[in-house]
Structure formats: structure tokens, C-alpha cells
Design goal:
- The protein is α/β, with parallel strands linked by helices and 621 residues long.
- The protein is built from twelve helices and 16 strands.
- The protein has helices at residues 2-7, 10-60, 65-78, 119-123, 170-191, 275-281, 367-372, 412-424, 433-444, 526-546, 563-575, 603-616, and strands at 88-93, 103-112, 133-143, 146-154, 199-206, 249-253, 256-260, 283-290, 296-304, 404-408, 461-469, 550-556, 578-584, 587-593, 595-598, 619-620.
- The strands form five sheets. Strands 10-5-4-11-12-15 form a six-stranded mixed β-sheet, sandwiched between helices. A four-stranded antiparallel β-sheet has the order 1-2-3-16, with helices on one face.
- The longest helix has 51 residues, at 10-60.
- 44% of the residues are buried.
- This is Pilus assembly protein TadG-related protein.
């Protein structure tokens, strides 16, 4: 009977199946729990990341600490979907509570309860006796809390023309749009409570030159001792001899000229003579008793002819396209005050006067010799003469208001100051975009001349240059402006000096330094000067972007059918950085360029778009 039972296989199948089902069902249960665990973990991570971005936006918009934490919890729980909120714990650490600030940290803890067997807790990562599995996750959001923006704005004479599609002049449209941008970013900045000075603006008005401010005359980065190779570029101190001027003359020692004679005061006597010396010692007659012909005979009172207006020369290449700090150990890096030489009194055969004849020559000789003759600056003449201000006399081509250094617009005082500086801008002169942009970069720098910028290595800070121009770069021959060039300088004087200076340590004028073979060094035409300056601009753009500066460019009312203006539009677009938030509408695989082809009618909206772009820099994942 026993043998018969053993030979009977009918009940063994059911028994074997029952025995086998025990581990199979356990495996299925474990698989279900594991799958659910992975799903809940991923859902928690997704909700955590979403809450991080959303909360960062609330913090950037000025939410209080308590409001930000409440918002984070509500947003996190709303996005959990199938995960019971009661099973999660959220910890929020705000940027102002983090060492170094700038980072929002969200940490989530998930307690997963297995559906089937508590032992699954151990198999799924827990320990013996646990009835839950603990999962933790962290999300960090770096808040780009700080933003430094340099407004580099064209102040040339053409800005007084009507804007295309508008009944207002370009300059008024620009001022309104620029102030609108300050208000847009300043309004956001006023809500920021996580760091100090969250948004700062500088203003660099440019035309033929840039004004760094006359208050900086004694700054360490200015050439106060005449060591720069540019200081004597158009001045011949050797003509100021004791024979020509017995009580106020110059004596050369080494490469420099020193003040000698009883007419100098103690502060100048035996010191190096510089351009600042001329500004200080040039005198005019301000009042007197006159004879019948208007010549002063008695009761003569003297006053300065002019004071330095604050404009500086463009440094020689490569320093003109760099942010290299000024140093006396490298004299070419120092900044030299602009001093427009008095040009010849003579007219040419076409009866054209010199472009900048503002003083009597008091000398004979060639027109080039008259131009560089120094005793004339120390001869007050015999008649009452007026003083010269901006863009006149020795300040010729210095037409812009001074730079406004980086200013915190999160305060009403700072915002008001920047907008007042925008309103004070005046349109006059030529267009030197590279000089404007170079100074825009320098205002963002953490090193002198302007030191308000945060360190370049500081995380969470963006440095942005916004460059706007309504024309191509311009440098003029005297004849093109109806003036003579009897001295052979080949250009009027501005930040790059003369194209052919009287004396230079370089092979040719600064406008041609650092340019390629496609720029002729003997073509003295406006078009060739534009080409040379455009090459400087391209190099400058590359250098600034390589240093981490974001560049935004705006072409205002430029005509693509005009060869020079079309070239400028292309140069501006090439100079611009790539957007971090927008794609190129013509090729979505590429980022959009931060370039705006604006008209007078569109300028306001384009500045709003720039504000939106800058706002997007404030938060990154």
C-alpha cells in the first residue's frame, strides 16, 4: 500500500505547486515593493527639484524667510502626486543662512512603508526589525543674487536725430529706455534681502572719447608724472627754453623735462612737466584796463584758460583692448589726460582754418612747428579772453559727461543717482565704440581704475556690458570736416590722438596699432580709420568675453543697405554673447545672440526684453 501511495503522482503536483508558490509570491511582493519604492523616490526627487526652482523665484522676488519656507513646503507637497505627504519631511535652508550665501538648499526625507512583508524593509535597504525604508534627497539651487551692469551708451551728435518710426529724437528715446531698465532691475533688487548690493549699474557715456571724471586727476592710475609714452606725443617741451621764456622754462634730464625758473611755484619747480602742468599754468587775462585798441595796459587780472575736463587718451595697443591694471612699472598702462594742441593760425589755399585753433601761435616756422611750440601756452596775451569749457580749447573732443561707477540700485538714492546721470548725458561728437566698451568693462572690474566690481572669481555674480550705438566707428580727417591739415597730423584730435603724431615710440599712430594687414597704414581716409577701429572692437569683444563678461549689443537705427552701417551691425552681433535662456528662432539648436537690431519705435520694448534677459540670470539650477 505504501508503495502504491509513493507511486501515485496526482497529489504531489498540488503539493509541489503550493510549496513553490511561497517564494514566488514573496518575490512578487518584493518586486512590487521595490518598484513602488523607486517610483516614490523619483517622485520625491522631482517634487524636490520643482520646489527648489519655484522657491528660488520667490526668494528672488523678495519673499520673507517664513513665506519662502511655507511656499516650498506647499509646492513640494502639491507635486508629490502619489506619495503621501505625511511620509515626507522637508527641510529648507535659505541662502542667508548658508555660509557664503547664494545657495538655497532643500532636503527631503521619505519613509516608505512596504505593502506586503515588513521583512521587505530589510531587503529594500533597511535593517532587521525596521517596518519602513528611509530615503533622503537634496536639491541645491544657486541664486545668482548679484548683477553688475555697465550701460555703454552712444553720446555722439547723430543721437539728436529723430528715431526711425518715432517723433522723438534718439537721445530722448534712449534715456527713457535706459531709465526704464534701471527701474525694472532696481525694482527687483529692492525686494532682495539675501545679499547686499544685489544689482548695480554703471554708466559710460561715449562719443569721440570717454570722461573718467576730473576728480580723478591725482588717481594712482593716471599718469601724473609724465612717464607714459603718450605724454609728449604732440608736445615739444624742448622749445620752452630760457631764451624763449626766461622765468619759466624747461630743462631735459633723461627722458623728461623739469620746470626751471622763478615763475613756477614751489609745487612745480624742479618737478617733471606734464600735460597737467599745462592745464595748471596756462593763464589768460580775465580783466584789465584797456587802451583805445583793446590792449590791456593796467589793473591786469589773470585766470586759468581751462581746467582738465576729465577725458583720457586711449592706451596704446594692446592695453586699449584689455583690462590690464595701470602700473608705473609699465608706463603704457597708465591713463594720460587728453590735451588737444592748439593748431596753426594759418588758413590753407582753400581758406580753410585749422580744426582746433584756440590760442595765438606766438611763433614762426612751419605749421607743424607752430602746433607743438610750447611757449605759447605760457603767454597770456595782451587782451581779455574767455575760458574754455568742455569740447573746446584743450578739451576739444571731450564732450561727454563723466562715468558713473557701479551704483547699487536697490536703494532709492542709488537708483535716482543713476537715472539722473542718464538724464544729464549730452549728445555731441564722433563715435568711438571700442573706447566706450573698454571703459564699460573697466567699471565692472574689481581692479583700478574703478574698483566697485566684485572679484571676478566670486560665484553667483554676473558682469554684463550693454553697448548701444547708432552708427559706425568714426575718426575724421580735417579736410572731411572743412578744416586744413597744414601740420600733417592726418586727423583731428581725440582719444587716439593724431593719426600721425609729432613724436611717437611706435611705428605709426595708435589707430593702426594691433590691426591686420587688411588695414593700410598709409591710407589716411575716414573709411580706413573706421576699419581699424572696428578691428580694435572685435579684439576687445573677444577679450571681454574670455574674461567672463557677458556682452549685449544694440544697433539703433542702422541701415543694412549702408555698407559701413551694415558692417557695424554685423560686428555688434558677432560681439554679443549667447543667451542662456533663449534659442535662436531661426535655428532652435543654437542659443539666441544677445543682439538687438532696434529702431526708435522698438527701443523701449527691446530694453524690456533686455531686462527680462537679465532677470533670467538671477536663478540657475
Amino acid at each position: 500500500m505504501i508503495r502504491k501511495f509513493l507511486r501515485d503522482r496526482r497529489g504531489n503536483y498540488a503539493l509541489a505547486t503550493a510549496i513553490t508558490m511561497i517564494p514566488l509570491m514573496g518575490g512578487v511582493a518584493l518586486a512590487v515593493d521595490y518598484t513602488e519604492l523607486v517610483r516614490q523616490k523619483q517622485e520625491t526627487l522631482n517634487a524636490l527639484d520643482a520646489a527648489g526652482i519655484a522657491t528660488a523665484q520667490q526668494v528672488a522676488a523678495g519673499a520673507t524667510d517664513d513665506a519662502a519656507k511655507t511656499y516650498a513646503r506647499q509646492f513640494f507637497e502639491a507635486n508629490l502626486r502619489h506619495v503621501p505627504p505625511a511620509n515626507t519631511t522637508l527641510t529648507v535652508t535659505l541662502p542667508n543662512n548658508n555660509a557664503g550665501s547664494g545657495t538655497l538648499v532643500l532636503q527631503a526625507a521619505l519613509k516608505y512603508q512596504p505593502y506586503f512583508l515588513p521583512v521587505a524593509a530589510m531587503l529594500l535597504g533597511g535593517t532587521a526589525g525596521d517596518t519602513t525604508v528611509n530615503i533622503s534627497a537634496k536639491s541645491e539651487i544657486k541664486l545668482k543674487n548679484t548683477l553688475e551692469v555697465a550701460l555703454v551708451l552712444d553720446n555722439s551728435g547723430s543721437m539728436t536725430e529723430l528715431g526711425h518710426g518715432s517723433n522723438k529724437v534718439r537721445f530722448d528715446l534712449l534715456k527713457s529706455a535706459a531709465k526704464q531698465l534701471v527701474d525694472q532691475l532696481g525694482g527687483q533688487a529692492q525686494l532682495m534681502k539675501q545679499v547686499t548690493k544685489p544689482v548695480q549699474f554703471s554708466l559710460v557715456p561715449f562719443a569721440a572719447s570717454v570722461n573718467v571724471g576730473p576728480a580723478n586727476a591725482d588717481a594712482a592710475w593716471m599718469d601724473t608724472t609724465g612717464v607714459s609714452p603718450l605724454d609728449q606725443e604732440n608736445l615739444d617741451w624742448s622749445t620752452l627754453t630760457s631764451a624763449n621764456s626766461p622765468n619759466q622754462y624747461a630743462v631735459k634730464s633723461g627722458n623728461y623735462y623739469y620746470a626751471k625758473g622763478s615763475a613756477w611755484d614751489a609745487s612745480q619747480l624742479n618737478q617733471v612737466l606734464t600735460r597737467f602742468s599745462i592745464y595748471k599754468w596756462m593763464k589768460r587775462i580775465s580783466s584789465c584796463t584797456k587802451d583805445w585798441s583793446g590792449v590791456c595796459t593796467s589793473n591786469i587780472t589773470y585766470a586759468p584758460i581751462a581746467t582738465w575736463g576729465g577725458c583720457v587718451e586711449s592706451r596704446p595697443y594692446p592695453y586699449n583692448v584689455q583690462d590690464t591694471p595701470a602700473s608705473t612699472s609699465t608706463p603704457a598702462t597708465l591713463f594720460v589726460p587728453m590735451f588737444a594742441p592748439d593748431e596753426t593760425d594759418n588758413n590753407d589755399s582753400y581758406w580753410r582754418p585749422a580744426y582746433s585753433n584756440w590760442h595765438d601761435d606766438v611763433s614762426t616756422g612751419t605749421d607743424a612747428e607752430r602746433q607743438r611750440y610750447m611757449p605759447k601756452y605760457f603767454n597770456p596775451g595782451t587782451k581779455v579772453t574767455p575760458a574754455y569749457g568742455m569740447d573746446a580749447g584743450p578739451n576739444t573732443s571731450c564732450s561727454t559727461t563723466a562715468i558713473t561707477p557701479l551704483t547699487d540700485v536697490s536703494t532709492t538714492t542709488g537708483s535716482t543717482a543713476v537715472k539722473a546721470a542718464i538724464d544729464a548725458m549730452a549728445a555731441n561728437g564722433a563715435t568711438n565704440v571700442p573706447e566706450g566698451m573698454a571703459w564699460g568693462w573697466r567699471t565692472l572690474s574689481s581692479t583700478a581704475p574703478f574698483t566697485e566690481g566684485r572679484p571676478e572669481t566670486e560665484k553667483g555674480n554676473d558682469k554684463v556690458v550693454i553697448v548701444l550705438t547708432d552708427g559706425a566707428n568714426t575718426y575724421y580727417t580735417p579736410n572731411s570736416l572743412g578744416a586744413n591739415d597744414l601740420a600733417g597730423a592726418k586727423s583731428t584730435y581725440s582719444a587716439l590722438g593724431y593719426v600721425k603724431p609729432y613724436k611717437t615710440t611706435y611705428s605709426y599712430g595708435r589707430i593702426f596699432l594691433g590691426t591686420s594687414s587688411s588695414v593700410s597704414k598709409t591710407d589716411y581716409s575716414n573709411a580706413n580709420y573706421t576699419k581699424a577701429m572696428s578691428e580694435h572692437f572685435a579684439t576687445l569683444c573677444d577679450n571681454a568675453k574670455a574674461a567672463g563678461v557677458m556682452v549685449m549689443t544694440i544697433a539703433l537705427d542702422l541701415d543694412s543697405s549702408n555698407t559701413a552701417e551694415a558692417a557695424q551691425m554685423a560686428a555688434l552681433k558677432t560681439c554679443s554673447s549667447d543667451s542662456r535662456s533663449r534659442k535662436d528662432p531661426t535655428d532652435p539648436s543654437k542659443p539666441a545672440k544677445l543682439f538687438w537690431n532696434s529702431t526708435g519705435a522698438s527701443l523701449s520694448n527691446d530694453f524690456k526684453a533686455i531686462g527680462d534677459e537679465l532677470s533670467n540670470l538671477r536663478i540657475v539650477g
